Every structure is written in structure tokens, then in C-alpha cells.
Amino acid sequence: MFGLYKGMVSPLYGQIGINAIVFGIHGNVLKALGNRDIKSQFFAGAVAGGVQSVIASPMELVKIRFQMQGEGVLNNNKLTAANQKYFYDSPTDCLKKIYKHEGGAKGLFRGMSLTLVRCLNSFGIYFASYDFLCKKTGAVTEECVNVWKLLLCGGTAGSICWLIAYPTDVIKTRQQMDGMGRTKYKGVIDCTLKSIHEEGYRVLFRGLNATLLRAFPTNAATLATVTVTSKMLEQNC
């Protein structure tokens, strides 16, 4: 049972900070632009996504390493399969050992370039599509907020975001896994080409169904909650 939640602590704590950064920056950029049209929504979302990627990259690295423990792939830099199963005792221990054995800060930010690309695009699309859908459905008006419509718009926006970002995320994840043993990939392009050559183009969308099943309810709840809370705060100011 506990294996189903392996690597959960890192994203659980990190997600609190990430959401605070994303929605805080998005709102402030929109305020600075003085416009809330779809282009401004995309730009503000992209800026927010770019900033939060600095936290997301090492956080996701730790999550992936914890999830991979027990696979017997650590055999490099004096780390062997024999001691790999319980190699990381905690997220902090994981960060320290990656820093020590994998080139310092370079190791901690393995996959950062792809995380940045993914977040710039996906968060821009995320906020732009949510705003577009809310306006089209009339989910938010001056008089009231329709929570059911907000949930539908939020879930749809989250699904669209992940549908577009998923191939980039697959390659990013493979790069971050690569540091656990003998390095297989020389870089982003090499990782992409080898993955497609060995497993076909379908590898870029492997696991997408499960991701979309998670994305819809998660983003429906997140965006609806933020929108309703923001509306309440505006009315009380």
C-alpha cells in the first residue's frame, strides 16, 4: 500500500509553495499589464510558470528518485544496486546525495531546461484556456459565480494543459531518471531520438490517460477554489 504513495512528501510540500507562486505572480502580472484579455492571460501564466519551474525542477527530481528506489539501477559513482533500495532516507537526504554524487547544482537541476519549456507553454495555455472557457460559459459574472461551470472549465483547462505538455514531460522525466545509473542520454535531443527509436512515437504519450484522469478533478478543484475565493475577497474589499 505504501508503495502507491512513494515520493509523495516532496510534491506535497512543494505544491503549496508552487501554487502560491503561480497564482500570486499571475495575478500581479495581470495587474501590471492592466488588461485581462486572452493574450495577457497567456503571458502572465507563462511568467508564473517560468518562475515556479525553479522550484518544480528539483522537487520533481526528488519525487522521481524516490519512486525509482528499489529498481536496482544505482550502479555508478560507488553506488550499487545492493544499497540502492534504501539509499534515500528523506527528501532532504535525497537532495544532499544528488548534490554530492551528481555534480553539485548541475545534478539538482537535471532536466531544468525541459521543465522550463514545459512550464512556460503549459501555464500560459492553462490560464488562457481557463479564462476563455469561463467567458464562453458565463461561469463568472458581476452578479454571481457558477461553481459547477467553474469546475468544468477548470478541469478542461487542466486537461488541455497536460495534453500539450505531456510529451515534453516524458522526456524530462527520462532525463531525471538517467542520473540514477550509467548515463544513457547525452542530452535532450539524444534522449528524444533514442526513446522514439527504441519504443516508437507512442512512448511520448505513454501514461497520458492516467494523467488526464488526475488532471481533471485536481485542476477543477484548484481553479474553482481560487476563483471563488478571489471573488469573495474582492467583494469584501
From TrEMBL:
Solcar repeat windows: 36-136, 145-232
Keyword terms, alphabetized: Membrane, Mitochondrion, Repeat, Transmembrane, Transmembrane helix, Transport
GO function term, MF aspect, one: high-affinity L-arginine transmembrane transporter activity
InterPro entries for the chain: MCP, MCP_dom_sf, MCP_transmembrane, Mitochondrial_Carrier
Bilayer topology: Multi-pass membrane protein
UniProt keyword annotation of Nucleotide-binding present: no
Main localisation: mitochondrion
Gene3D superfamilies in the record: Mitochondrial carrier domain
Any one Gene Ontology cellular component term annotated for this protein: mitochondrial membrane
Subcellular location: Mitochondrion membrane
Gene Ontology biological process terms, A to Z: mitochondrial L-ornithine transmembrane transport
Family: Belongs to the mitochondrial carrier (TC 2.A.29) family.
Protein name (record): Uncharacterized protein
